[in-house]
Amino acid sequence: VNLLASAVTDTLGRGGNLVIPSFAVERTQDMIYTLKILMDDGKIPRADIYIDSPMAVEATKIFMEHPECFDDEATAEMEGAHAASLFEDRNIHYAKTMEESVAINGVRSGAIILSASGMCEAGRIKHHLKHNLWREECTVLFVGYQSVGTLGRTILEGASEVKLFGETVDVRARIMAFQGLSGHADKNGLIEWLNGFQEKPRKVFIVHGEDTVCTSFAECLKYEHGYDTYAPFSGTRFDLINNVFELEAAPKAK
């Protein structure tokens, strides 16, 4: 939270915008909630927060309607108020129409822009990158995992320029990433989840993550916890009914 406050304060102080590629469900709501608390507590300046993702806007409505899903901290923060109080403020703006989305691109400074997709592969975030990525006073803050081969990963790994809508855009903005905000369970969390089954799964496929991480986690589950595991490469086909491989793909050169 302190790092987020620092990123906001620094960017706004330099006269730029803070662009946050954010997954529409859960991550965006976490960020809205956290930014609102930071503003209410005076830890960051009051700034306009734009949520520019149709799915995120609709998902936020669902969160407002179901406070029973909140954790203890969020429930305590409401203090008996309606759940919407965690996501509404005079500085929070939900872009519902294309016109409202386009208008955000005219904001030159003082804005915090939350937009999808989280890995910058599609959606409205690409427009906000086009208008802010080349500006030294701006910051692009990644708050979720960036898969290999995605635009988000390319930017995060230090690309000096990227292609957006067929145009070359220089990367001059400050690039930051907060790994602690990832929504994925860590190794211990996944093992705890697996061990919670009353009947042990007959086979466990490790399909999400980079190749070396998937392989090492599969070996850990197999040799340390007794699971029948497999980390398939892209293109592998397995017949779940007959419990046989139809095709075992080879790793692709990078």
Short structural summary:
The protein contains nine helices and twelve strands. Helix content is 35%, strand content 17%.
- On the 0 to 100 scale, the average pLDDT is 90
Contiguous uncertain segments of 5+ residues: none
Helical/strand content category: alpha/beta
Distance between the termini: 36 Å
**What is the tally of helical segments?**
9
Largest beta-sheet characterization: 6 strands, parallel
Strand content: 15-25%
In total, the number of strands is: 12
Largest sheet, spatial ordering of strands = 3-2-4-1-5-8
Quaternary state of the chains? single chain
- Evaluate the radius of gyration: 21 Å
Determine the fraction of residues in helical runs and give it as a percent range.
25-40%
Helix/strand order: HEHEHHEHEHEHEEEHEHEEE
Inertia-based shape: globular
What keyword list fits this structure?
254 residues, six-stranded parallel β-sheet, globular, two-stranded antiparallel sheet, 9 helices, 35% helix, alpha/beta
